Amino acid sequence: MSLTYDDVVAKYEPVLGLEVHVELNTNSKMFCGCSTIFGAEPNTQTCPVCLALPGALPTVNEKAIESTIKIGLALNCSIAPFSRFARKNYFYPDMPKNFQISQYDEPICVDGYVDVEIQTDEGPKQFRVEVERVHMEEDTGKSLHVGGATGRIHGADYSLLDYNRAGIPLVEIVTKIVPGTGKYAPEVAKAYVSELRDILRGLGVSDVKMEQGSLRCDANVSLRLIGSDVLGTRSETKNVNSLRSVERAVRGEMIRHAELLNKGERVVQETRHFQEDTGLTRSGRSKEQAEDYRYFPEPDLVPVAPDAAWIEELRAGIPERPSLHRKRLQEAWNVPAKEMEAMINADVLGIVEATVALGADPTKARSWWLGEISRLANERDTAIAELTITPSDVAAIVALVEKGELTDKLARQVVEGVIAGEGTPAEVVAKRGIKVVNDDGALMAAIEKVCAEQSETAEKVRSGHLPAAGALIGAVMKETKGQADAARVRELLLAHLGQA
Amino acid sequence: MIRLSAAEMAAKLSAGETTSVALTQAHLDRIASVDADVHAFLYVDIEGALAQAAAIDAKRAKGEKLSPLAGVPLALKDVMAQKGIPTTCGSKILEGWRPPYDSTVVSNLKKNDIVILGKTNMDEFAMGSSTENSAYGPTHNPWDLTRIPGGSGGGSSAALAAFEAPLAIGTDTGGSIRQPAAVTGTVGVKPTYGGVSRFGLVAFSSSLDQAGPCARTVLDAALLHEAIAGHDPKDSTSINAPVPQVVAAAKSGDVKGMKIGVVKELNGDGYQAGVRARFEESLELLAKTGAEIVEVSAPNFEYALAAYYLIAPSECSSNLARFDAMRYGLRVGDVDGASAESVMNLTREVGFGKEVKRRIILGTYALSSGYYDAYYGSAQKVRTLITQDFTNAFTKADVLVSPTCPTTAFKIGEKANDPLAMYLNDIATIPVNMAGIGGMSLPSGLADEDGLPVGFQIMSPVMKDERMYSVGAALEAALLSKWGAPLLDKAPIMGGAK
User: Fold this and answer.
1) Which stretch of DSSP H or E encloses residue B262?
2) Domain membership flag for residue A315
3) Strands B187-190 and B115-120, bridge-based pairing
4) Using the beta-carbon criterion (under 8 Å), do B89 and A52 form an inter-chain contact?
5) pLDDT over threshold 70, residue B68
6) By residue range, what is the domain housing residue A41?
7) Does the residue B169 lie in any domain?
8) Beta-carbon neighbour count of residue A150 at 10 Å?
9) Which residues pair with A119 in a beta bridge?
10) Which of the two residues, A375 and B468, has the higher pLDDT score?
11) Phi, psi of A111 (to 5 degrees)
C-alpha cells in the first residue's frame, strides 16, 4: 500500500518553500545588552528589557543590523532604504512581552536568490532558489514542559522557562515558492540549506550549528498534479536539525501528502514536527485558521534607514560565494570533486588554502592536512583547528622537503614535533637533530656494511632479482636512522651491486 | 515654608536658611495631615526621602557644588519605575511589584539631588481624566474634595495644590499632565515627544506617552524640565539634541513681537462660559505685554479624539500584554492543575479595571486583520493631517493657545459611567500628543460660575519648548499682578499648617 518515491514523482510535482531562522553571533542580544553565550545557567543572561519588566524599552543592536544587511547582500537582495520593526502579538509564557519584535510588511532585505547545484545521475544540475525576504526579529525564551506524554504545554505537570534565549537576534530568510524541482525537491532543499549555511559561515555572522539550533529550517511542502497550476495545501515541517534531515523531511512529507491525496483525503494545513529517529513527521499546530497576530509598527523603535554609503561599504566586504570560491580552487588546484568534498567534510579547505597561499604545492598541502595531520588530530581526539600547527608551519615543511632537506619520513617527525609543541619546523629540526644524510660516502659505508651482513640477499640482487633490494634499502635506512634519502640509497645500492 | 515655590525653597537651602531634611520633614508632615482627605499619594517613602535629604545636606555642608533644585522634594507619578519602591500604575495587577531598576527620569532626579517623597495616585495605567480609575480609590481635588483632580495624573497635581510637594512628575499621553494642572490651578508641561526619556515609564501608548514637570510656577516647571530632560540612549525615540533653554525663557518671560495663534477649533461650543471668559482675559493680558494675537485654523483637529481612541488603545492592547502573571505582579488562580493560560486569564480578569479592559478590547479589535486599515491605518493618516495642521499653523504663529479643557473640575462620579463624556475632556489636549509637540497648562483664574480653576494651554513646535515657557512666564506675571497673590491662595485652607 505504501507508495514508493518514484510513484509520487510520477504523478505529482512538489512545491517547496523554505524558511530558515539564523541566530546571529553578536555578543549581545537584539534589543538589550545581555550576553548571548550558549549554555549559561538558566535566566542568568537577562535584564529588565529582555524580561519585559514594566517600563523597559528596546534599543536596536547595530551589529545585528549590519549582519542582516550582509546576509541580504550575500543573497543578492536589495536593501530597503527604510524598514521598520513591527510587533507580532500573541500570548505564550516563553515570550516575555507577549509580543515578538519582528518585521512585517517592511523587511530590511527583499528579492534575492541563491543558486544551488546538485549532483544527479545525469550529471550536475543547477537550480535558482528565489529569496522573498530577509528580516530581523528576536528569539523567544525556551520552555521545558515537564510531565505529560507529548512534551508540549498541554498536559504537562509544570513548565520551566529560561529567558536566556529571549531576545537573541534572529534573522529569518524566506524563499519564494520553489517550483520545478520535480523529483529533486529533497536534494534541492538540502543543497539550498547547505549553500545558505556556507554563505553565512563565510560571512562570519552566525555559528550556523543546526544541532544547537543556531540555524533552523522549516520546510514547507505541497504537491500538485503534474501539469496543474493549482497549488496544493502545504504542511510546514519544523524541528529539522541537520542537512540530512532536510532532505528526509521533504521526501517524507511528499510521500505522506501523496498517500493522502491518492486516498482522496485532504492535506491538513498544519505544522509538523520532524522525528529524527523515524524520519517521519508528527502533527503539530493547525494552521487551518490563520492566526491573527495584529501586527503594527513597533512604536518603541525608530525606523531603520541604513546609509547608502554604508551599504556599499558592506557590499565591498562580502566574500566570494563559498561554492564559487570552491569551484575556482578546484580548478586552480586541479583536484577531483571527491577530494574537494573530503577537504570540506574534514573542514580543512580554508587551512589548505592558507597553506597554498604561503607557497606550498596544493597537492602536498592537501595531503598533509588531510592525511598525517588529520590522523594526529584523531589520535588526540581533537579538531584540526585546535592543533598548534599552522598553515605556515606546513608550508615551511613542504618547502624543506622540496629542497631535499627533509624526506617525507623525516617531515612526519617534524610535524609531530610541531604538534607536540616543540616549536617551529626549523626549531624541531634543530632540537631533534633531524637531517637528511646527503653524504654519499657515509651512505656507501652503510651500504657496504649491509651488503656484507646480508650477503645472500645482496647476491640475489646482483643476479638481477631487483625486488630483493627493498630489504637492503630498509636496512640501510635503519642504519642511517631514517635520515637518508631513500631514493638516493636505492641508486647507490643498485650501482654498487651492478644493476644501475 | 511649604507654600513657597521650589525656586524659593532652593534659594533658602543654598543660603543655609533651612535644610533639606527640615524641608522634607515639613512636607511629610503636611502629607500626614492632609492626605487622608486628598489621597494624592499611593506610597510615601518616609525613610528613603529623609535619608536622601540628609545625604544632600551633608554634601552641601561639605561645600559640594549642587544642582539648582538640590534638596527640594518632589512627588513621583506611580507610573515611573523607581528601584525598590512599589510601582503600581494605579493597578491591582502590579500590586506589590518593586522594580529592580530606576527609570531614566528617576536617575536624573537622583543625579540632581531632588528628594523623592513618594508615588502619586493615577488612573490605572494612565487611562482616564479623573483618577477615578485608580484601583486604589480616587484622589480628591484640594479646591473641592467632592471634585476630581483631573487625570490621569490627578495625584501629582493634587499634591501640588495641597502643598504636599512643590514639584511633581507627570506623564501625558492625551492630556494627563495638562488637564490635572488646569483643574487644580497648577502648572503642567508636556515636553516635545522625545525630550524626556521614556525608559522606565510604564507604557500606556508608546508613541504618545511623554513625561514632564508639574509645579506651581512656570519657573519651577522649567527648572524641573531641565533636570529630567535630555537624550537617553536607552530610549530609541529620545531626541539627540540639546535640551531647549527653558529656564532662561521662563526667567525672561519676554514675548514682545511674538505671534500667538488662537486655534479657532479649540474654543467656542462645548466650552464652559467661565473657561472662555478666562481665556479671553488672558489673551488681552498677553496682547498688553507686547505679543501679537492672531487666529489660526486646524481643520483636522475635529478628528483628533476619534483617531486618538484608536491609536492609544491599539498600542495599549499590546503594551499591557506583558502583565500575564508569569514573571511579576499579581497571580490569580495558580492552583494545582491550573494551566498557564487559565492563570493568565484569571489574573488579567481580576487585575485590570474596567477602563483598562475597555481599551484593551478596543485596541485588539482595531488591530485585527481586516480592520487594521480602516481603524489603525486611518487613525495614523489623521495623525499625519493633524501634524500638518500644526506645521501650517506654526508658519503663522510662534505658539498656539487654547483653553486646556472645556470645563472646570467635575464632581467625582459625575462622568464615571459615561466614557464618551470623560473622553471629551481631553479634546483640546490630545492634538499636541498626536503631533508630538510641546504643550503647557497654567492657571488663568477661576470660572465665575463655580469658582474653580481654569487652565490656559500654550503649544510650541517640536523642540521649541522654550517658547511656551516665555509665553507662560509672561502670562503668569501679568495674572499675578492682576490678582495680587498666587491663585492657590484662593483655594480653601485644608487641615494642617498653612
Assistant:
1) strand B259-263
2) no
3) unpaired
4) no
5) yes
6) 5-310
7) yes
8) 10
9) A124
10) B468
11) 55, 70
Q: How many domains does chain B have?
A: 1
B residues 214..233 contacting A (CB < 8 A): 233
Q: Identity (one letter) of the amino acid at A178?
A: V
Nearest Cα neighbor of A146 from A154, A134, A138, A156 is A156
Q: Do residues A249 and A299 share a domain? A: yes
User: Is residue B314 within 8 angstroms of chain A, CB to CB?
Assistant: yes
Q: Is A460 helix (H, G, I), strand (E, B) or coil?
A: helix
The pTM score is: 0.87
| Set of cell numbers at residue B133 | 480609575
pLDDT tens digits, A36-94: 998 899 999 999 999 999 999 999 999 999 999 999 999 999 999 999 999 999 999 99
**In this structure, what are the phi and psi dihedrals at residue B116, rounded to the nearest 5 degrees?**
-95, 110
Cell of B115: 528628594
Handedness of CA A311, A317, A322, A323 (dihedral sign): positive
Residue B445 counted as domain residue: yes
More confident residue, A17 or A462: A17
Q: Which string of DSSP letters, residue by residue, matches B203-253?
A: -SSTTT--EEEEESSHHHHHHHHHHH-S--TT-TTS--SPPP-HHHHHHH-
Q: Give the residue numbers spanning the domain of B66.
A: 6-255+439-490
Cell numbers found for residue A496:
654498487
User: How does pLDDT run across A358-390, given as a tens digit for each residue?
Assistant: 999 999 999 999 999 999 988 888 888 788 899
Same domain? A399 vs A418: yes
Provide the Cα torsion A138, A140, A141, A143; round to 10°. -160
A99 touches chain B (CB under 8 A): yes
When pLDDT is cut at 50, 70 and 90, the band that residue A1 belongs to is: low
Question: Which residue bears the cell 491609536?
Answer: B311
Looking at the domain assignment, is residue B291 inside a domain? no
CB pairs below 8 Å between A and B: how many?
A: 105
Q: Which residue has the cell 510662534?
A: B398
Which member of B87, B206, B321 has the closest CB to residue A299?
B206
Q: Distance (Å, rounded) from C-alpha B265 to C-alpha B214?
A: 27
Q: Do A140 and A91 touch, CB atoms closer than 8 A?
A: no
